[in-house]
Design brief:
The complex is a heterodimer of chains A (252) and B (361).
Chain A (H helix, E strand, L loop, with lengths): L2 E12 L2 E12 L3 E5 L6 H8 L7 E6 L2 E2 L5 H6 L2 E3 L12 H6 L16 H21 L15 H14 L4 E5 L7 H18 L2 E6 L2 H4 L5 E6 L2 E6 L1 H6 L1 H9 L1
Parallel strand pairs in A: 3-8, 3-9, 6-7, 7-8
Antiparallel strand pairs in A: 1-2, 1-4, 4-5, 9-10
Helix pairs in contact in A: 4-5
Chain B lengths: L22 H28 L7 H23 L9 H10 L4 H27 L7 H21 L22 H27 L2 H11 L1 H6 L4 H27 L9 H14 L4 H21 L11 H19 L13 H11 L1
Helix pairs in contact in B: 1-6, 1-9, 1-10, 1-11, 2-4, 2-5, 2-9, 4-9, 10-11, 11-12
Classes of the chains: A alpha/beta (252), B mainly alpha (361).
The structure holds adenosine-5'-diphosphate and magnesium ion (MG).
Chain lengths: 252, 361
């Protein structure tokens, strides 16, 4: 299978901090890849570089045989590369449902000339709302469809951040610690759902997780970051045996 | 140019013919002002209330509409009636007075054309002025437009062909050919109210759509909106186009009501009046903007009508009383209803109805 996403020798510095220092990863289409590493190892920064949030100091990002570093976040998103935030960035003046249905790109009703004419976009809106409601219910949030964000618990907020990514119908979904703070059973359900999406729709995932054991059963391949560099990579069962990985986790 | 006594919302003319209180005259005057300011408040609300863009230069686009309509109408009259005189001259005012009621369709045609062109020109200027600043952050946007408005005013004050500080006079009323001034201004008031209502409906539909949802998202967190694929700079510029176009329309309506225009009608205070309306009525709610406009224009017009009979000294003008009243109103409202009289409500797209239906069955 072809590479869907690839970073080549990517570096990103914050003053003296080398958050990323020459990181190359490859993500095949239809795979579920883990990105792990201790706190501060550069995982979120790698997401930020891939999604156009930061311009890298060095290196290249390729998606679908196209170079995408230097593009704006909205342009990257429209190519089908959707990410979630480790600290969810939801919209407090919108309801839960609206926070989800805002994610699909190219909505008819978002075009200023079509917006005043409900007839033109109503059908699409209804379809999206149905899908969104289904997703929300699947992950135990059916009760909160019309709630404001301020009425949700931290775990629900985290879940919502992931759910909205799912509705965007991306080619690849980059999830930043989707299981953090979420109940164990919900996290398990989420990962199982991810595997199903992969097999049913060929969706690709790159998932950040701080704790390796959480991801073990679900990912095909793991990259381990440490101090901005790749420390190890391989199948999850190989990586957990890697002495360098064990040391990095124990040491810091 | 007889009926309308003008006070503080439009500095320039005195209300000397208002000896006794004329209820009909007051209602006509107030509803015209109310409708014009409601348009401005709706336009500002679209920018600040829904999208979170602090526009401190709303008055500039209002001025553009008024000046553009004045120039267009005067030039058209002079050309059609073969008068060659500068726009600002006694000859021009005399010619406009002579021919202003001859061709009803000319007046009406110029009125409509002025509205359309004011919307387009003010909209394009709004788009152009603000587009480069949108990327550098919200504070710059407000300051840039504020300065733009002041620069425009100082330019007009010094630009002789447009009458410098005196401005332009004698623009024929669209219904100049109706002899009875009460009927004339009454019809005009109804038309302005109608246009305001149309703009209200448009704004309501716009904000209660997926587009409106994106606007609120931008207000909450524009970086997150950008990361969800929304072209934030372009959407903001679009909103400023629409908001400025609405202000341009208001400017045209103002010009034809007064028949004259001068640079000092467009001081920054006008912008802050509009802000006061939006804050009082409720940010992020079009009905609130209208209520705010109604209250503040009412206070303003009422004081303008009443003060001459109060026998106050020259130092206490209607302006002072108005400022105190409006200030007090805002303090009281924000104290008891921090969201304004009609606070922000959830967006009405069919999505939430769907959720209800699914929940039931
Ligand atoms: N915007 C920023 N400004 C300064 N330093 C940053 C910024 N973002 C991340 N860093 C630093 O870069 C390093 C990597 O951070 P991050 O990518 O968030 O790690 P992780 O997601 O693996 O926990 C950390 O040392 C962090 O402090
Ligand atoms: Mg992180």
């Amino acid at each position: 299978m072809p590479e869907l996403l690839e970073t080549v020798d990517v570096a990103k510095y914050f003053g003296g901090v080398r958050a990323l220092d020459g990181v190359s990863i490859k993500v095949k289409e239809g795979s579920v890849i883990g990105l792990i590493g201790p706190n501060g190892s550069g995982k979120t920064t790698l997401f930020n570089v891939i999604t156009g949030f930061y311009v890298p100091e060095r290196g290249e990002v390729w998606f679908n045989n196209e170079r995408i570093d230097g593009l704006n976040p909205n342009e990257v998103y429209l190519k089908g590369l959707v990410r979630t935030f480790q600290i969810p960035r939801l919209f407090p003046s919108l309801t839960v449902l609206e926070n989800v249905i805002i994610t699909p790109p190219y909505q008819i009703g978002e075009r200023v000339l079509d917006a005043p004419f409900k007839k033109r976009w109503e059908k699409q809106e209804v379809d999206l709302a149905k899908k969104a409601v289904e997703l929300l219910r699947r992950f135990g949030m059916g009760k909160y469809i019309k709630s404001k964000i301020s009425e949700l618990s931290a775990a629900h907020i985290k879940m919502l951040e992931t759910i909205r990514g799912l509705l965007a119908s991306p080619k690849i979904l980059l999830l930043d610690e989707p299981a953090a703070g979420v109940a164990y059973t919900t996290a398990k359900e989420l990962f199982e759902y991810i595997l199903r999406l992969r097999s049913e729709q060929g969706l690709t995932f790159l998932i950040i997780e701080h704790r390796l054991e959480v991801l073990m059963d679900y990912v095909d391949y793991v990259y381990v970051l440490h101090n901005g560099k790749l420390l190890s990579e391989g199948k999850p069962e190989e990586v957990v045996q890697d002495p360098k990985v064990i040391e990095a986790y124990l040491g810091g | 140019m007889e009926a309308c006594p003008i006070g503080s919302l439009n500095p320039g003319r005195g209300g000397e013919d208002m000896v006794e209180f004329n209820v009909l005259g007051f209602l006509i005057d107030w509803s015209t002002f109310f409708a014009i300011y409601a348009i401005l408040a709706i336009s500002l609300n679209l920018e600040i209330g829904y999208t979170g863009m602090a526009n401190f230069g709303k008055v500039a686009f209002y001025a553009i509409g008024a000046y553009l309509s004045a120039v267009l109408t005067i030039v058209a009259f002079l050309t059609i009636f073969g008068v060659s005189a500068p726009l600002y001259s006694v000859d021009t005012v005399i010619a406009l007075g002579e021919h202003g009621a001859e061709l009803p369709w000319l007046n009406i045609g110029l009125f409509i054309l002025s509205i359309v062109l004011s919307a387009i020109v003010a909209g394009v200027v709004g788009y152009l002025v603000t587009y480069p600043t949108l990327r550098v952050g919200p504070a710059f946007l407000g300051i840039t437009i504020l300065s733009f408005g002041e620069m425009l005013r100082f330019f007009l004050r010094n630009y002789e062909p447009l009458g410098s500080t005196y401005g332009l006079f004698g623009v024929p009323h669209p219904f100049q050919w109706i002899p009875n001034p009460t009927v004339r201004t009454g019809i005009y008031a109804l038309i302005v109210l109608g246009i305001m209502f149309g703009i209200y409906i448009y704004a309501e539909r716009l904000v209660n759509s997926p587009f409106g949802r994106v606007l609120r998202a931008i207000k909450d967190d524009e970086v997150a909106a950008l990361c969800l694929g929304k072209h934030v700079p372009r959407i903001k510029a679009t909103v400023l186009f629409i908001g400025s176009a609405m202000a341009g329309v208001a400017g045209a309506l103002y010009l034809f009501y007064l028949g004259s225009v001068n640079p000092d009608m467009f001081i920054p205070r006008v912008t802050f009046d509009i802000w006061a309306m939006v804050i009082l009525g409720g940010m992020g709610n079009n009905k609130g903007a209208i209520v705010g406009a109604a209250i503040i224009t009412f206070v303003d017009r009422a004081l303008t009508f009443i003060t001459p009979s109060l026998g106050l000294t020259a130092y206490i003008t209607p302006d002072y009383i108005r400022w105190m009243t409006v200030g007090l109103l805002i303090v009281l409202v924000l104290l008891f209803k921090p969201g304004g009289l009609i606070p922000e409500k959830p967006i009405k797209t069919p999505a939430l109805e769907i959720a209800d239906k699914i929940e039931e069955g």
